[in-house]
């Protein structure tokens, strides 16, 4: 019973971590890359910087999703192996 609860807590913690990452990282990278990289360093126009910053945000979303799937897959297979040994 306690192992199940620990597993549930671990899964919930992972889900909350990646949910927070999914919200904050793309938005933060969108605005920071727009202001500092594309407009600041590269001197792009406002319109072009919106476009490229959106690409950065979309790529970030995909990277976070891929990391979540990887972590969830490894956590699930680890729990399955531990349950199989009992």
From TrEMBL:
Keywords, alphabetical: Cytoplasmic vesicle, Endoplasmic reticulum, Membrane, Transmembrane, Transmembrane helix
InterPro entries: Vma21 (IPR019013)
Transmembrane segments: 12-31, 51-73
Presence of keyword Membrane: yes
Stored Pfam families: VMA21 (PF09446)
GO biological process: vacuolar proton-transporting V-type ATPase complex assembly
Origin: domain of life: Eukaryota
GO CC annotations, alphabetized: cytoplasmic vesicle; endoplasmic reticulum membrane
Protein's UniProt name: VMA21 protein
């Amino acid at each position: 019973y306690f192992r199940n609860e620990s597993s549930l807590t671990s899964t919930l913690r992972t889900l909350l971590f990646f949910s927070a990452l999914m919200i904050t990282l793309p938005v933060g990278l969108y605005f920071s890359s727009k202001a500092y990289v594309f407009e600041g360093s590269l001197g792009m126009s406002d319109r072009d910087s919106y476009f490229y910053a959106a690409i950065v945000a979309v790529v970030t979303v995909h990277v976070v999703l891929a990391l979540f799937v990887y972590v969830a897959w490894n956590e699930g297979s680890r729990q399955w192996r531990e349950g199989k040994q009992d």
